[in-house]
From TrEMBL:
Family assignment from sequence similarity: Belongs to the binding-protein-dependent transport system permease family. LivHM subfamily.
Chief localization: membrane
Native organism taxonomy: Bacteria, Pseudomonadati, Pseudomonadota, Alphaproteobacteria, Rhodospirillales
GO MF term set: transmembrane transporter activity
Swiss-Prot/TrEMBL GO biological process terms: amino acid transport
Keywords per UniProt: Amino-acid transport, Cell membrane, Membrane, Transmembrane, Transmembrane helix, Transport
InterPro entries the record matches: ABC_transp_permease, BCAA_transport_permease
Domain of life: Bacteria
Subcellular location: Cell membrane
The protein's name in its UniProt record: Branched-chain amino acid ABC transporter permease
One Pfam family in the UniProt entry: BPD_transp_2
Record's GO cellular component terms: plasma membrane
Length: 294
Protein backbone atom coordinates (compact mmCIF):
# COMPACT_ATOMS: atom_id res chain seq x y z
CA UNK A 1 0.00 0.00 0.00
CA UNK A 2 2.81 2.39 0.86
CA UNK A 3 4.53 1.72 -2.46
CA UNK A 4 1.27 2.20 -4.33
CA UNK A 5 1.00 5.72 -2.92
CA UNK A 6 4.60 6.62 -3.74
CA UNK A 7 4.05 7.95 -7.31
CA UNK A 8 1.24 10.22 -6.07
CA UNK A 9 3.37 11.49 -3.20
CA UNK A 10 6.24 12.18 -5.60
CA UNK A 11 3.95 14.17 -7.89
CA UNK A 12 2.61 16.21 -4.96
CA UNK A 13 6.14 16.72 -3.64
CA UNK A 14 7.34 17.94 -7.02
CA UNK A 15 4.56 20.54 -7.17
CA UNK A 16 5.11 21.74 -3.59
CA UNK A 17 8.89 21.76 -4.04
CA UNK A 18 8.53 23.85 -7.18
CA UNK A 19 6.78 26.58 -5.20
CA UNK A 20 9.53 26.56 -2.56
CA UNK A 21 12.14 26.70 -5.31
CA UNK A 22 10.45 29.70 -6.96
CA UNK A 23 10.52 31.65 -3.69
CA UNK A 24 14.08 30.52 -2.90
CA UNK A 25 15.32 31.40 -6.39
CA UNK A 26 14.46 35.06 -5.92
CA UNK A 27 15.82 35.08 -2.38
CA UNK A 28 19.08 33.48 -3.55
CA UNK A 29 19.55 36.15 -6.21
CA UNK A 30 19.18 38.96 -3.70
CA UNK A 31 21.31 37.34 -1.01
CA UNK A 32 23.96 36.03 -3.39
CA UNK A 33 24.54 39.38 -5.08
CA UNK A 34 23.70 41.97 -2.42
CA UNK A 35 24.38 39.93 0.75
CA UNK A 36 21.00 41.01 2.14
CA UNK A 37 19.14 38.42 4.28
CA UNK A 38 15.86 39.70 2.92
CA UNK A 39 13.16 38.49 5.29
CA UNK A 40 10.84 40.94 3.54
CA UNK A 41 10.99 38.65 0.49
CA UNK A 42 8.02 36.76 1.93
CA UNK A 43 6.00 39.95 1.62
CA UNK A 44 6.79 40.15 -2.11
CA UNK A 45 5.22 36.69 -2.28
CA UNK A 46 2.22 37.89 -0.21
CA UNK A 47 1.74 41.06 -2.26
CA UNK A 48 1.90 39.09 -5.51
CA UNK A 49 -1.01 37.00 -4.23
CA UNK A 50 -3.09 39.91 -2.90
CA UNK A 51 -2.63 42.17 -5.91
CA UNK A 52 -3.53 39.31 -8.23
CA UNK A 53 -6.59 38.59 -6.09
CA UNK A 54 -7.70 42.24 -6.18
CA UNK A 55 -7.29 42.48 -9.97
CA UNK A 56 -9.08 39.18 -10.62
CA UNK A 57 -11.92 40.28 -8.30
CA UNK A 58 -12.23 43.46 -10.40
CA UNK A 59 -12.79 41.33 -13.50
CA UNK A 60 -9.29 41.04 -14.98
CA UNK A 61 -8.08 37.80 -16.54
CA UNK A 62 -5.86 35.82 -14.11
CA UNK A 63 -2.73 35.82 -16.30
CA UNK A 64 -2.99 39.52 -17.04
CA UNK A 65 -3.63 40.16 -13.35
CA UNK A 66 -0.54 38.14 -12.40
CA UNK A 67 1.60 40.01 -14.93
CA UNK A 68 0.37 43.36 -13.58
CA UNK A 69 1.02 42.17 -10.02
CA UNK A 70 4.59 41.22 -10.92
CA UNK A 71 5.25 44.72 -12.31
CA UNK A 72 3.77 46.38 -9.23
CA UNK A 73 5.70 44.13 -6.83
CA UNK A 74 8.92 44.93 -8.68
CA UNK A 75 8.23 48.64 -8.11
CA UNK A 76 7.49 47.93 -4.44
CA UNK A 77 10.74 45.94 -4.23
CA UNK A 78 12.70 48.91 -5.56
CA UNK A 79 11.03 51.18 -2.99
CA UNK A 80 11.85 48.73 -0.18
CA UNK A 81 15.47 48.58 -1.29
CA UNK A 82 15.68 52.37 -1.55
CA UNK A 83 14.00 53.09 1.80
CA UNK A 84 14.93 50.08 3.94
CA UNK A 85 18.25 48.67 2.75
CA UNK A 86 20.29 51.31 0.93
CA UNK A 87 20.42 53.83 3.80
CA UNK A 88 21.55 51.10 6.22
CA UNK A 89 24.13 49.68 3.81
CA UNK A 90 25.54 53.17 3.17
CA UNK A 91 25.73 54.15 6.84
CA UNK A 92 29.35 54.06 8.15
CA UNK A 93 29.83 51.02 10.33
CA UNK A 94 26.20 49.92 10.05
CA UNK A 95 26.12 48.01 6.77
CA UNK A 96 26.64 44.67 8.50
CA UNK A 97 24.54 41.56 7.97
CA UNK A 98 22.87 42.00 11.37
CA UNK A 99 21.81 45.58 10.62
CA UNK A 100 20.46 44.57 7.23
CA UNK A 101 18.60 41.61 8.75
CA UNK A 102 16.94 43.87 11.33
CA UNK A 103 16.01 46.29 8.54
CA UNK A 104 14.53 43.41 6.55
CA UNK A 105 12.41 42.32 9.52
CA UNK A 106 11.20 45.90 9.94
CA UNK A 107 10.31 46.09 6.23
CA UNK A 108 8.47 42.77 6.51
CA UNK A 109 6.35 43.98 9.43
CA UNK A 110 5.55 47.30 7.70
CA UNK A 111 4.40 45.55 4.51
CA UNK A 112 2.28 43.09 6.52
CA UNK A 113 0.59 45.94 8.37
CA UNK A 114 -0.08 47.83 5.14
CA UNK A 115 -1.65 44.69 3.64
CA UNK A 116 -3.80 44.31 6.77
CA UNK A 117 -5.01 47.90 6.49
CA UNK A 118 -5.87 47.47 2.79
CA UNK A 119 -7.33 43.94 2.73
CA UNK A 120 -8.02 43.09 6.36
CA UNK A 121 -7.21 39.82 8.12
CA UNK A 122 -9.83 37.62 6.47
CA UNK A 123 -8.35 34.75 4.48
CA UNK A 124 -9.19 34.80 0.78
CA UNK A 125 -8.56 32.61 -2.26
CA UNK A 126 -7.87 33.52 -5.86
CA UNK A 127 -10.26 31.70 -8.25
CA UNK A 128 -8.27 28.95 -9.96
CA UNK A 129 -7.21 30.02 -13.47
CA UNK A 130 -7.77 26.48 -14.70
CA UNK A 131 -9.54 23.33 -13.60
CA UNK A 132 -9.15 19.69 -14.42
CA UNK A 133 -6.39 17.18 -13.95
CA UNK A 134 -4.36 14.48 -15.61
CA UNK A 135 -5.12 10.98 -14.37
CA UNK A 136 -2.78 8.05 -14.91
CA UNK A 137 -2.68 4.56 -13.45
CA UNK A 138 -0.02 5.72 -10.99
CA UNK A 139 -0.91 9.27 -9.98
CA UNK A 140 -3.20 12.26 -10.49
CA UNK A 141 -1.89 15.78 -10.99
CA UNK A 142 -3.90 18.95 -11.52
CA UNK A 143 -3.34 21.36 -14.39
CA UNK A 144 -2.47 24.05 -11.84
CA UNK A 145 0.26 21.86 -10.34
CA UNK A 146 1.62 21.23 -13.83
CA UNK A 147 1.59 24.99 -14.44
CA UNK A 148 3.56 25.62 -11.23
CA UNK A 149 6.18 23.04 -12.22
CA UNK A 150 6.39 24.47 -15.75
CA UNK A 151 6.66 28.02 -14.35
CA UNK A 152 9.67 26.98 -12.29
CA UNK A 153 11.32 25.52 -15.40
CA UNK A 154 10.63 28.69 -17.41
CA UNK A 155 11.80 30.94 -14.55
CA UNK A 156 15.03 29.00 -14.11
CA UNK A 157 15.70 29.09 -17.86
CA UNK A 158 15.03 32.84 -18.00
CA UNK A 159 17.29 33.57 -15.02
CA UNK A 160 20.04 31.38 -16.48
CA UNK A 161 19.83 33.15 -19.85
CA UNK A 162 19.95 36.57 -18.16
CA UNK A 163 22.95 35.62 -16.02
CA UNK A 164 24.95 33.80 -18.69
CA UNK A 165 23.89 35.31 -22.01
CA UNK A 166 23.64 39.05 -21.34
CA UNK A 167 25.86 41.95 -20.34
CA UNK A 168 23.61 42.54 -17.35
CA UNK A 169 24.15 38.95 -16.24
CA UNK A 170 27.90 39.36 -16.57
CA UNK A 171 27.71 42.47 -14.38
CA UNK A 172 25.56 40.66 -11.80
CA UNK A 173 27.97 37.73 -11.61
CA UNK A 174 30.97 40.03 -11.36
CA UNK A 175 29.33 42.01 -8.56
CA UNK A 176 28.41 38.86 -6.65
CA UNK A 177 32.03 37.66 -6.81
CA UNK A 178 33.75 40.90 -5.85
CA UNK A 179 31.87 44.18 -5.61
CA UNK A 180 34.97 46.36 -5.23
CA UNK A 181 36.62 44.84 -8.28
CA UNK A 182 33.40 45.29 -10.25
CA UNK A 183 33.37 48.99 -9.37
CA UNK A 184 36.99 49.34 -10.50
CA UNK A 185 36.09 47.70 -13.82
CA UNK A 186 33.44 50.37 -14.42
CA UNK A 187 30.37 48.25 -13.63
CA UNK A 188 27.48 50.39 -12.45
CA UNK A 189 26.59 48.46 -9.32
CA UNK A 190 23.51 50.63 -8.71
CA UNK A 191 21.93 49.24 -11.86
CA UNK A 192 23.00 45.75 -10.84
CA UNK A 193 21.27 46.27 -7.49
CA UNK A 194 18.05 47.43 -9.16
CA UNK A 195 18.07 44.53 -11.62
CA UNK A 196 18.73 41.99 -8.87
CA UNK A 197 15.89 43.29 -6.72
CA UNK A 198 13.60 43.35 -9.75
CA UNK A 199 14.32 39.71 -10.62
CA UNK A 200 14.01 38.57 -7.03
CA UNK A 201 10.76 40.42 -6.37
CA UNK A 202 9.26 39.22 -9.67
CA UNK A 203 9.93 35.58 -8.82
CA UNK A 204 8.38 36.01 -5.39
CA UNK A 205 5.29 37.66 -6.89
CA UNK A 206 4.81 34.87 -9.45
CA UNK A 207 5.01 32.24 -6.71
CA UNK A 208 2.48 34.14 -4.59
CA UNK A 209 0.01 34.53 -7.45
CA UNK A 210 0.12 30.84 -8.34
CA UNK A 211 -0.06 29.65 -4.73
CA UNK A 212 -2.90 32.06 -4.02
CA UNK A 213 -5.01 29.95 -6.37
CA UNK A 214 -4.25 26.88 -4.26
CA UNK A 215 -4.02 28.05 -0.64
CA UNK A 216 -5.74 30.83 1.36
CA UNK A 217 -4.05 34.23 1.27
CA UNK A 218 -3.68 36.54 4.27
CA UNK A 219 -1.24 39.31 5.32
CA UNK A 220 1.20 37.04 7.19
CA UNK A 221 1.19 34.29 4.57
CA UNK A 222 4.76 35.08 3.52
CA UNK A 223 6.35 34.25 6.88
CA UNK A 224 6.38 30.46 6.54
CA UNK A 225 7.48 30.36 2.87
CA UNK A 226 10.42 32.73 3.48
CA UNK A 227 11.58 30.62 6.44
CA UNK A 228 11.37 27.55 4.21
CA UNK A 229 13.23 29.46 1.51
CA UNK A 230 16.12 30.14 3.91
CA UNK A 231 16.16 26.42 4.73
CA UNK A 232 16.32 25.75 0.99
CA UNK A 233 19.27 28.17 0.70
CA UNK A 234 21.19 26.26 3.34
CA UNK A 235 20.32 22.85 1.85
CA UNK A 236 21.22 23.84 -1.70
CA UNK A 237 24.15 26.10 -0.84
CA UNK A 238 23.92 29.82 -0.14
CA UNK A 239 24.23 31.82 -3.35
CA UNK A 240 23.78 28.77 -5.61
CA UNK A 241 20.91 29.02 -8.08
CA UNK A 242 20.97 25.29 -8.98
CA UNK A 243 21.05 24.67 -5.24
CA UNK A 244 17.87 26.72 -4.81
CA UNK A 245 16.08 24.52 -7.35
CA UNK A 246 17.33 21.20 -5.98
CA UNK A 247 16.94 22.31 -2.36
CA UNK A 248 13.34 23.41 -2.96
CA UNK A 249 12.45 20.13 -4.65
CA UNK A 250 14.11 18.10 -1.89
CA UNK A 251 12.27 20.04 0.80
CA UNK A 252 8.92 19.64 -0.96
CA UNK A 253 9.46 15.89 -1.33
CA UNK A 254 10.43 15.49 2.32
CA UNK A 255 7.41 17.42 3.59
CA UNK A 256 4.96 15.49 1.43
CA UNK A 257 6.49 12.15 2.41
CA UNK A 258 6.39 12.99 6.11
CA UNK A 259 2.78 14.20 5.87
CA UNK A 260 1.69 11.28 3.69
CA UNK A 261 3.34 8.42 5.53
CA UNK A 262 3.30 9.97 8.98
CA UNK A 263 1.34 13.03 10.02
CA UNK A 264 1.07 16.60 8.79
CA UNK A 265 1.83 17.65 12.38
CA UNK A 266 5.40 16.43 11.86
CA UNK A 267 5.84 18.11 8.48
CA UNK A 268 7.89 21.05 9.79
CA UNK A 269 9.90 18.72 12.02
CA UNK A 270 11.00 16.83 8.91
CA UNK A 271 12.01 20.13 7.30
CA UNK A 272 14.34 21.14 10.09
CA UNK A 273 15.72 17.63 10.58
CA UNK A 274 16.87 17.79 6.96
CA UNK A 275 18.39 21.20 7.68
CA UNK A 276 20.32 19.87 10.70
CA UNK A 277 21.50 16.81 8.75
CA UNK A 278 22.84 18.97 5.90
CA UNK A 279 24.61 21.31 8.36
CA UNK A 280 26.26 18.32 10.04
CA UNK A 281 27.25 16.43 6.89
CA UNK A 282 27.88 19.22 4.37
CA UNK A 283 27.73 22.66 6.02
CA UNK A 284 28.23 24.51 2.72
CA UNK A 285 25.12 22.86 1.22
CA UNK A 286 24.71 20.47 -1.68
CA UNK A 287 26.00 22.91 -4.31
CA UNK A 288 27.91 25.36 -2.12
CA UNK A 289 31.65 25.82 -1.85
CA UNK A 290 33.47 25.22 1.40
CA UNK A 291 35.26 28.54 1.15
CA UNK A 292 34.10 31.57 -0.78
CA UNK A 293 36.30 34.61 -1.20
CA UNK A 294 34.49 37.91 -1.71
Amino acid sequence: MMLELLPQQLANGLALGSTYALVALGLTLIFGVLLIPNFAHGEFYMLGAFITYALVASGLNFWLAMTTAVVLVVLIGWIVDRVVFQPVAAAPGHGSGLSLMISALAGSIILQQLATIIWGTEARTIPAPMTGMVRTSLFTITYLQITIIATLAVAWTAVWLVLHRSRLGLAIRATSQNRDAALLMGIRTTRVRLATFALGAALGAVAGALLGATFPIYPSMGVNPVLKAFVVLVIGGIGSLPGAIVGGLVLGMVEVMVAGYGSSQFQDIGTFLILVAVLLIRPQGLFGRAQVER
